[in-house]
Design a protein that fits this description.
70 residues, elongated, mainly alpha
Length: 70
């Protein structure tokens, strides 16, 4: 509940799912942006912008996970 914090307990490896997904999205978008840069520069820039927005959301989610469990 909101007064006592998060009380869900699970395996500790699930903590690494969020950064792993962020890294995977970053690498896939960087590769696709590099590959598309010669063909369509706008699409490459759009992929990089989308990757940046995803990383911002992942950072916000990670900060919330850390500070809700303190």
């Amino acid at each position: 509940n909101i007064l006592f914090g998060v009380d869900y307990i699970d395996v500790w490896q699930k903590v690494f799912y969020l950064p792993a997904m962020g890294l995977l999205i970053l690498l896939v978008n960087a590769f696709l942006g590099w590959w598309l840069f010669d063909r369509d520069k706008f699409m490459a820039q759009l992929l990089n912008a989308g990757s940046f927005i995803c990383q911002v959301f992942f950072v916000v989610a990670a900060v919330l996970l850390v500070f809700l469990n303190v």
